[in-house]
Structure formats: C-alpha cells, structure tokens
Amino acid sequence: MEKNHGQFFSATLYHLFLSTVLALMLMMVMVHGHPMNQAGRLMAFWNDVKNPSHGLEVDDQNLNMEAISLIGDDEVVFTDQVGKMEDDLIQGGLPGQPFKSNFSQYAGYVTVDQSKGRTLFYYFVEAFNNPSSKPLLLWLNGGPGCSSLGIGALIEIGPFGVKPDGKTLYSRKHAWNKAANVLFVESPAGVGFSYSNTTSDYDLSGDKRTAQDSYTFLLNWFRRYPQYKDRDFYIAGESYAGFYIPELADTIIKGNKKASPTSMIQLKGIMIGNGIIDIERDRRGRYDYTWSHALISNEAHQGLIEHCITPNDPKCNEVREQIDNEMGDIDLFNIYAPQCLNSSESLNQPKCRRDYDPCEEDYVHSYLNLPQVQEALHANRTKLPYTWEECSEVLTVWKDRPSTMFPIYRRLIASGGFRILLYSGDVDAVVPVSSTRYCIDALNLQVVKAWHPWVDSTGEVAGYKVVYDGLSFATVRGAGHQVPQFKPHRALALLKKFLAGR
Ligand SMILES: *[C@@H]1O[C@H](CO)[C@@H](O)[C@H](O)[C@H]1NC(C)=O
Ligand SMILES: *[C@@H]1O[C@H](CO)[C@@H](O)[C@H](O)[C@H]1NC(C)=O
Ligand SMILES: *[C@@H]1O[C@H](CO)[C@@H](O)[C@H](O)[C@H]1NC(C)=O
Ligand SMILES: *[C@@H]1O[C@H](CO)[C@@H](O)[C@H](O)[C@H]1NC(C)=O
After folding, report:
1. Residues with CB under 6 A from ligand 4
2. Mean pLDDT score, 319-328
3. Please, which domain of life does this record's source organism belong to (predicted)?
4. pTM attached to this predicted model
5. Does the 1-277+354-426+445-502 domain belong in CATH 1.10.10.10?
C-alpha cells in the first residue's frame, strides 16, 4: 500500500508545523512510504536544522503560555448523553482475533463539545486478569496528530497486532493489559476516528485544545465507567506526547482543585518514552547523538553546533546538505533496524515477523479501514468522508505549543506524591537519550539513587536507571523511538516496576 508522498510539501502542512520542515530527515521518512506516521510527524516538527529561528519565534510568542492555565475559563461541560459502557462492548471480540479473549474490550465515542459535535474515539481493554484490582492507564501517541489506536494499541502495547494480510490479528505476548486496564484515545478531534461536525474546529487545534478536550473526555468517560472513577490512574505515551502528557496532567491537577469530590481524577503518575521536553536541549541532544553513534562526521557535528543552534545562520543549510549525504538511508527511529522497503515482500519474509516488522503500519492501515472492523469498533458511524489514517490528514493547523515543559515539570514535581518516569529507548536518534539527559540536567534535581542497571525478569540488564528527587529516568537497551514495539518484554517489565513504585 502506497501513501501519498506529495502531501508533505503542501502549504497546509507548512502551516501545521508552524515552520519549514527538516527536509533531510523528511526525505528519509518519505522514501519509505510512511510520510504520515508518528515518526514522520515528529520529524516535520523538528524544523531546526533548516531554520532554527522559525521555531524559536513561535516559541517566544508562546512562552507565556506556561504561566497561564491550560484550562480556559470555560467550565467543563458534561454531555447530556453519558452513554452506557454495555453499549460500547465489542461483542465477540475484534474481527480476525486469534482466540476468544476472556478480557473485555470496549470502543466508542465520548463527546467533548456537544454544540459543535466534537467527539473523541476510544478503545478500552480491561486487564487480562483481575481487572477490578488493576489500575487504569491512558496511553497517548504523539505526532502531533497521530493515532493511539493505530500505533499504540495495534503496534505497541495492545493485546493484538495485525498480521501481514491486513485482516487477521495475532496476540501480543507482552501486552500492557497484563498489568493494567488500558485506555487508548484518538486525540485531538480530526485524528483517526475522532471528529468534529464543525470542521472549522480543526483549525483551532493545538496543545491547549488537546489538553482541554482530553480532560473533558476523561470526565465524561468516567461517568460512563463509574467503577473506574476511584481507580488509580496513570498516563503513559511517547514522542510528541512528551508535551501532551504533562499538559494533561497539569490540567487534571488544576481541575481537581476546582472539582467536586465526585469528579476528581485519581491521577497518580505519568510515564513518558522518548518524549520531547525542551526544544533547544532536545536539539543539542540530537546533534550529539548522531555524532556519537557514528552517523555523521566530526566536521558535520562541528557545523551543527556552530551554525544550527543559534538562529538565522544561513550556513546551517550547507551543514544540512552535508549530513544528508553522510547519513544515508537509515531509520532514525531505530538506527539499527531494517527498513520497510516493500510491504508486500515482507509478507513472504517470515524472518521479519520473528522480531520486528517495519511494515506493520501498512497492515494496521488496511485493518482499520475494513468496514467490518469499523462496525465492530462502533467507529465512523457518521461515515466520515475520508479514510482512517495513522496520522491525521484532516488537521492542517497547529495553533499553539510551548517551547519547553520545564515550568510544568516544576509544578508537577512540586505538587508532590506524584510519580514521574521518563524512559528512553537508547537507539532512537530522533528524541535520543542524550536529549532527555540534557533536559533532566537542566531541571537541576537532586540524585536520590545513583545511576545503576535495572534488570528484567530474565535477569538481563534491560537498561539503566537513576532516581532524582521528583522524577526517575530509565533507559531501555536496544529500543528505538517506540520502545514497546522494539523491546516489548523490557517495556512491560518497566511498566510493572513503575506501577509498583519500584
Ligand atoms: C454529527 O452529526 C451526525 C449527523 O447529524 C450525528 O449523527 C452525530 O451524532 C453528530 N456527532 C456529534 C458528536 O454530535
Ligand atoms: C484469562 O485466562 C487466563 C489464562 O488463559 C487467566 O490467567 C486469567 O485469569 C483469565 N482472566 C480473566 C479475567 O478471567
Ligand atoms: C514489491 O514486491 C512485490 C513482490 O515481490 C512486487 O510484485 C512489487 O512490484 C514490489 N513493489 C515495489 C514498489 O517495488
Ligand atoms: C468512514 O466510512 C466511509 C463510508 O463507509 C468510508 O468511505 C470512510 O473511509 C470511513 N472513514 C474513516 C475515517 O474510517
């Protein structure tokens, strides 16, 4: 299945990312036919090498955003139709499911703005055993504009993945519902099956709207699932969700202060993988990572530092071209992984299936566009005039984003008793481990437990961990940008430790 590559050059996308795109990296993403995946989206977001000033201008303008509340003055509007969870039950499981699951799956819509007809789609899987004693975990993918159902649930952590035929499912051994009840939301409206009947709504998309709508979603979702209202609640995700998640947590904490006891959300912690934190430090971390992992020359690295950190240096374009020639055609989201060169060929390559199949997103695209699958999921009941995409082609404007999460992290840490885990697959070059370390350093936190290896259930060193006063940081050895996709066993082990507070 081929996707339309031309889109990336369109004027709308130009605006979506508020700036020019990182042409070099984008080319690589396009070459392999996945321009609209989470990876591609984030690539486009990194405007820096080409013109660092662009992003910074926008950032400065939005810097004050952290000071003001992410919640506007509008009160959260509960929808009249709470809906019943029984109506959202996926009867008999998903089409193509390998066995009759004994855990329940639900899917449907929760309206976040009734007057506009704006509604978010969710998929909810209860825990494999004893769901009533397990916490509730919300998973969010990034982009901005990518689907937590297509990527998070079907490629990374859900109970099922899609086989190369695009019609049948396999069961995922290290699914996260082995440890929690897991909720996937396609956010914001315009992503996946989530939509608005007022299409001008899409032009108001941005970080603020996303946090506000996600909060409203949760309040209304808990009314449909009252047995989960008092459950310990966690948020996890990756990539651009490095912004979404702290913003939503901050919104929830503020909302809880105003909320009646019945609409409090029992948020206990957040867990973010290869997430963006601070644009400037993330950028420096990328430059150093690509050099230290021998992807670029000393000269190119020097050039990046001299010309591509401070804004408006025309020489940065030359450096970019040099890097383009030096790095060659690799997957920057896992610098050691194979590429998806032809998804119909990988059908006949059983070796791909054993470990990691770079074409999996193509199978997911086929699966979620099957009418019987949409029907089973209670999705797309309004017959949206476009196909389901891994990353939205409907959203063309992204109004606001801050340049750094530091103020929010300081608030979250100060709020106390709140668990924060930043984890990092250490072979990702896009939001690499070095970026996250520079960001954490800048927060200037006291080390509580020094750098040490952590082991998974096999007894192998799965990565390294350091505990600070306020947050923990863990690496996952050998994992790329989507940690659970590349190292499912280690990712589940990390989740279990996080939930257990270890
Ligand atoms: C959007 O409009 C359709 C058609 O009128 C309607 O069936 C649907 O309920 C509306 N969606 C929301 C969220 O209001
Ligand atoms: C589902 O089956 C597994 C064994 O296949 C069992 O361990 C688990 O407790 C069951 N879960 C529920 C919710 O019954
Ligand atoms: C992909 O591989 C199939 C089967 O080998 C072949 O028929 C098809 O032409 C290839 N497509 C591309 C774009 O190379
Ligand atoms: C929704 O359904 C219509 C009609 O069946 C289909 O053409 C469209 O691709 C679907 N859109 C999404 C987002 O699933």
Report:
1. 193, 371, 374, 380, 383-384, 386-388
2. 91
3. Eukaryota
4. 0.87
5. no
